[in-house]
Predict the 3D structure of the following.
Amino acid sequence: MNVFVIIVTYNGMQWISRCLEMLRRSTVPVTPVIVDNCSTDGTVDYIRQSFPEARLLLQHSNLGFGQANNVGIRYALSQQADYCLLLNQDAYLQPDALSLLLAESDGQSLLSPLHLNGTGEALDQMFRLSMKLSDNALLDDLLLHRPLSSHYESYEICAACWLLPRTLIEKVGGFNPLFFHYGEDNNYYHRMVYHGVKTLCVPAAHVWHDRGLFGNATAYNHRKLRRDLLLKVCDINAGYLRRLKGRLNVLLRCYTRDLRRGAYRPTGFLQESLWLLFHYRSIRRSRRLEKLQGPTWL
């Protein structure tokens, strides 16, 4: 199998050495592709010197997570990749994980390992939430001490470690450029559901995700209201009334939260609503494109 590992970097010196060193230990040979979003902390020079096997794709501006991954995916497909593994710069893939994921691949579904925390001693907190929203078959097997299945169909899982078969990418496409950072994987999951693509979790495979609850909390909270609204209006599984209800729920939740904090800012609601209105044509176009099968956004 021709596996390309795509890692988007941005000032990742504290993680990148361990991330790439773990890839060297993989029992399945891989080609690392580094898409750098204008790092200023020496990340690029360090990779050049210490990991010459990595393909470096340097960007002239910070493209954000989704569009930078699209750059890497386009490159991997041009090099006849059979699979693209999307891996965060702060994630450490365990040596046998890729072999275990490939063994469970049906050539159509997205595959994910268990996401553990940075020390491998507990589940990653966001991954734990994803498992709660799944059908809980994995939890049942664990609690009842039954033998674990080789894989479980799952709810959406954070894109810190996604194994994408080429056929899946050619069917669903790349990340929607309307999402700069955070939310792009939620949108991608909505599109997979629309196109009948499953997400499979392989419990024997592990990745360690060295972060807190949301990774970069400042980046997560930046434009969060806009991102939440955008997820609702871009969901191609929802009709007009459901999308409208979703937007109202987001606004109500944000209003009550800010009201409790004594920080109610109606101008924020108005600003984000105007942003959505201004980008209405782009949103409609994205919904139309994402309903088509093909390498959308690539």
About this structure: Residues 240-261 form the longest helix (22 residues).
